[in-house]
Amino acid sequence: MRPAPARGIPGFDHLDLDRLRGRGSVKWHRPERDVLPAWVADMDFPTPPPVVAALHEAVDRHDLGYPDWPDGSPLRSAFAKRMAERHGWAASAHRVREQTDLIQCLQLVLHLATSDGDAVAVQIPNYPPFLSTLRTMSRRIVPIPMKDTDDGWRMDFAALDTAVKRSGCKTIVLVNPHNPTGRVLTPDELGEIAAIARRHDLLVISDEIHAELTYTAHRHIPFASLSDDAARRTVTVTSATKAFNLAAIRCAVTHYGPDRLLALRDAQPPDLYGTVSPLGVIATLAAWEHGDAWQRDLLTVLDRNRRRIRDVVRDRLPLIRHHLPEATYLAWLDTRPLGLDEPPVEKVLRDGRVLLDGGAPFGPDTEGFVRLNFATSQQVLDEILGRVVDALGGQEG
């Protein structure tokens, strides 16, 4: 029996499934109509009102011509200001460059800083497009497995140090907060990584796109803010798209710490890697400058939803291993103790009509894991969870 829908939070808990299915975005458009999607990392919530207003204003005034940005877009100073206000990091606006999305940011940095066959360390499990990027670019992946402990997911720093030394690796892609486990690295943990990076002279490419989706009691710390040495060796990549549900605006930023890399970047033909849309800049500025109230409500909803998953898994699927995510809107579930005779993503889709993500695309030894996107309404999440429990043979609620 499904719980009766609660009143919920206006703007977040009253979603029309027909409207969601009518969108052209891949999350709801690709699955069959009777399938509830909880796979790709898009939220179901409406666009933040300040962003909608800013975009309407630009269109209404017919402001769709070439932008006048001789010294770069306004994102550069806006990013530096947000980092200072939120994290106490004195990021330099002069070191910020715009790109169309985070994956392009990563690919460009790898193109400039590494060559075919070079070793790149990366946490496992990891965001599938990052891993496929490394394979497509013929970079040798040095996997650093995250450890599932009684206290949650942890990095093995001795293993990282050994792997970097043995492989001759000179680059690490650090995902923090971590996708898919939801782990937020502590100051001590970041300090361990910084020491390893200094010892082996590593370039650190720090993906911090989920930074603003960190829950109370945890604190995101930009890697480049740790020390002068960390700042000089770190390239930070991020965007407003995850924390404000703006994937289609195609707008991201890269902050270059290393002087050499910034010079290489600026020596490229100016349009070789595309230019960011002015509408993407307008949407990002509106989110950063006027979207904090919306984001606070969002985090309230996501906090409730992550706890709902924890409770349902504990009570109705007690064999599954799961840790309450410290950030993101993604739950990483280990179904291997269930002893299923087929991949759980396939079983849940067939028997529960819910589309999850998981398995081999997240890296070695991830078969049997699923990733569940919980950025949806209370009612939709309860229906998703009910179907998943039934498909996996869970206990009665």
List the topology elements.
Elements: H1 17-22, H2 26-29, E1 36-37, H3 49-60, H4 75-87, E2 96-99, H5 102-113, E3 119-124, H6 128-136, E4 140-149, E5 152-155, H7 157-167, E6 171-175, H8 187-200, E7 203-207, H9 228-233, E8 234-238, H10 241-244, E9 252-256, H11 259-267, H12 278-290, H13 292-316, E10 321-322, E11 330-334, H14 344-352, E12 354-355, E13 357-358, E14 369-373, H15 378-391
Parallel strand pairs: 1-12, 3-4, 3-6, 6-7, 7-8
Antiparallel strand pairs: 2-9, 4-5, 8-9, 10-11, 11-14, 13-14
Question: Can you summarize this structure?
Answer:
The chain has helices at residues 17-22, 26-29, 49-60, 75-87, 102-113, 128-136, 157-167, 187-200, 228-233, 241-244, 259-267, 278-290, 292-316, 344-352, 378-391; strands at residues 36-37, 96-99, 119-124, 140-149, 152-155, 171-175, 203-207, 234-238, 252-256, 321-322, 330-334, 354-355, 357-358, 369-373. With 397 residues, the chain is α/β, with parallel strands linked by helices.
How would you describe what is shown here?
The longest helix is centred in the C-terminal third of the chain and has 25 residues, at 292-316. Helix 4 packs parallel to helix 12 and helix 14 (344-352) packs across helix 15 (378-391). Helix 9 links the parallel strand 7 (203-207) and strand 8 (234-238). It contains 15 helices and 14 strands. With 397 residues, it is of the alpha/beta class. It folds into 2 domains: 17-47 and 293-391, Aspartate Aminotransferase, domain 1, CATH 3.90.1150; 59-290, Aspartate Aminotransferase, domain 2, CATH 3.40.640.10. 46% of the residues are buried. 41% of the residues lie in helices and 16% in strands. Its cofactor is pyridoxal 5'-phosphate.
